[in-house]
Structure formats: C-alpha cells, structure tokens
Amino acid sequence: MTRPTGFPRADAENDFLRARRRQVLSRLSTWLRREPDDVNIMLPFHEVVQALGYVSETRIGTRVITLDSIVGTVDRSRDFDRRFRPTSARVRQRWERLALAARRGEAIPPIEVYRIGELHFIIDGHHRVSVALAQGLSTIEASVTVVRTKLDPSGIRYRGDLIVKDYRRLFLERVPLSGHARASVLMTDPWNYAQLGEHVEAWGFRLMQDEGRFTDRATVAQRWFDEEFTPVVAMLRQADLIGDRTEAEAYLWVACERYRLIRTHRWDEEVIETLRAQQ
Q1: Rounded Cα distance, 47 and 72, in Å
Q2: I need a labelling partner for 172 at 20 to 30 A (CA). Which of 84, 85, 185, 234 fits?
Q3: Residues contacting 49, CB < 8 A, separation 6+
Q4: Predicted TM-score of the model (pTM)
C-alpha cells in the first residue's frame, strides 16, 4: 500500500487511477511487443474445466490464498485484465468504495473461488482482488471449492494453452495410458495428439489382425507403449534422432517418415539409416 496522505478518500481515488494507468501501459507494451491477444485475458474457468475434464468438486471452507495464484474467472469478466487491473472507468465507483474501506481498516468479506491444482478462479470478488493487488497485498481470504479434473492443470498460463490440454485429454480417452507411460507421451503441438491417437489405433488394429482376437483400448495402449514406443525411442536416442523434440514428437515424426519413404511398419537398422539420411 502506498504511503497514506491522511485523506483516505483521496488515497482510494489515487489507488484506482494508478491501477488504470498501469493497465493502459501494460496493454500498450503488449501491442508494441506483438504478443498474443490472450496474454492479458483472464482464463475462463469453464473452458479450463472442459479442457482438463471434470471429475468432482468439494467445498473446503475459508483459506488464505496467494493473490498471484488467481488466474481466471467464472463469469469471463472483461472489467479487469489478467492482473486484475481495471480495464475501464465503469468499475470506478465500487472499486474506490472498497479501496476506501481497506484504507480505513474495515473488515472485507472473503472472496469466493474454485481451486484446480494450484490455480484459483474467482466466482465472486473481482473488485476485492483488484484493490488488494493495487494496495500491494500478497494474500487474501477466500472461500474455496476444490475441483478435481482428469488432467493436471500444470503448464496452463494463457488461453491458448487450453487447446493443448483439450487435445491431450481426447488423446488419453482414445489411448488410455497410465502411470509412467501417461507422463512420457507429451506433445507441444495439439494437432500432434490427434495424429498420434490415430496412429496408435491403427497399430492396435494391426495387432488384433496378427493375433486374431479383440484387444481393449487400455491393453492396446499399454502394449503400444511397451512394445513399440519404448524400444523405438531407445533406438532414436541411440541414433541421435530426437534432437530438441519431445520423445513422442520424435517418435511420431519418424513413424510417419518411415511409412512415407519406404512403406513399412517394421523397425530395423535399415529404416533408421534411411530416416537419418532424410533429417
């Protein structure tokens, strides 16, 4: 909180003007750096839950949470940017009323949030968070409801990150890996998850043809990881063909190139040497 002047109302007004000024400067800086449009937009809670896959929720009561863990909103409020700075003068009256109460040391009711992993999404209390940040606080009281999802929310920073999570969730529904296998298959381009899902399903179809019996998705997924993915990745690592890709990206690239170049599904030294020559 900035040093008080002795006039709480004037200090509250200055708090708002300072927050607005910072928001305008941040927006200008984003435009000058040609950053993506979603850099300063709060993450929409329902889109995050859809991308990660909803499982359940539990209300755990009032907790003290860090303000920098609040990254999104339930109602897609456009009155504040990602750092809860006011985007217009429309919220000024209510904002300054709360800032004045905080300046006077009055009790401020807890905000209400959803928690996914370590991230928090505001249900009610946008103005209170904005005022707290503007006045230099680092924590705030919140009534918390924990939401459990199929995927871990780690790695989500911007709205665009949700696309990768959504495609990964769909991939894991098609290829239900678990444990170490699940953690090992990672992509940075969301479309690669769709391609890899189709590739694994085709591998499973050939497996069932060879063995003459039906195999469920979970079994296909685990056998693909153990019998195809793991040994191929070991070969690629030995041949220094992974580079700066993830293991899954390297596998998908060589698998597609292998079939395009020599129309085969086998793996041997001849295949690896052919792929190395094309790198």
Answers
A1: 10
A2: 234
A3: 116, 147, 149
A4: 0.68
